[in-house]
Amino acid sequence: MAIVTFSRQSGSLGTQTARALAEALGFAFLDKDSLERRLVEHGVTAASLEKYDEKRPGFWEIFSSDKNRYLHFLKTVIYEFAREGRGVLLGRGGQVLLAGVPGVLHVRIVAPVEVRRRRLQESLSCDERQAEQILRHDDTDRAGFHRFFFNVNWDDPQLYDLILNTKNLSTETAVALLRSALKQGRAADQERLFRQVMADRCLEQEVVTRILYQEKVPVKFLEAEARDGVVTLNGTVNTRAAVERCAQIAASVPGVEKVENQLYYSTDLYGYMPHA
């Protein structure tokens, strides 16, 4: 049982290393294309994919309900993928969304700017100025994506278990190092803990999906916390009937054994519904 998340700078060989590791281990590989297919299956629009995928959205997107919908289903897809086990996840905030989960290795691939620029010039057949612009644009977008959705510094080394500088490393060498790290990190009780944590997280997402996006009950700041089948609801609604309705919906989700309803009823609820 193992999941590896990859964060990479453009031109660092991060994408190539992630794909090569997945192939070497026989792991599933979740990249931009495969993730977008899963998001579309959950009803995320092409416009949202174009707007948010590893990009730095504009200021007004902070107040957009579309942003909350995208983030919710991004979590759903990544949790569902991780729960399957034996997978490699490329980008999309995996190091944040799966932080603290037993059996997950968070990897960062970097390289000096001049090395990354030269690699882009060679792979894209562009001049130095164009390669520099691409590097700056990609780095800014990925950093902005992490700041916007997760309020973290993409470059923070504490987000990662292992950081590889590929200035003098081939993809093959990087893969060998990662395979060794995975072997060293195995623990007898990790699989049980991993399955428990991911089952809880997937259940939380399913409860929120049912309430907000299927039954469309307006709840501000809805959160569902699951622990061994016990789901605790937090958030604010504007009618007493909605408090009970949310509890009923949550209780109907397969896997939910008990609902602790801590939703707050307020007649002062107004304005946009960020999760609606």
Tally of DSSP β-strands: 8
Looking at CATH, the homologous superfamily of the largest domain is P-loop containing nucleotide triphosphate hydrolases
The CATH architecture of the largest domain: 3-Layer(aba) Sandwich
CATH topology of the largest domain: Rossmann fold
Alpha-carbon Rg, integer: 20 Å
Helical coverage, percent range: 40-55%
Low-confidence stretches: 270-276
Assembly category: single chain
Output the CATH class name of the largest domain.
Answer: Alpha Beta
Mind explaining what this structure looks like?
- This protein has 276 residues and is α/β, with parallel strands linked by helices.
- The protein has a 5-stranded parallel sheet, with helices on both faces. Strands 6-7-8 form a 3-stranded mixed sheet.
- The radius of gyration is 20 Å and the shape is globular.
- The chain has helices at 14-25, 32-41, 46-52, 65-84, 94-97, 113-124, 128-150, 171-184, 190-214, 240-251; strands spanning 3-8, 28-30, 87-90, 104-110, 162-165, 220-227, 230-237, 258-265.
- Helix 4 (65-84) packs antiparallel against helix 9 and helix 6 crosses helix 7.
- The chain has 2 domains: 3-186, 3-Layer(aba) Sandwich (Rossmann fold), CATH 3.40.50.300; 202-265, Histidine-containing Protein, Chain: A.
- The longest helix has 25 residues, at 190-214.
- The model is unreliable at 270-276 (pLDDT under 50).
- Helix content is 50%, strand content 17%.
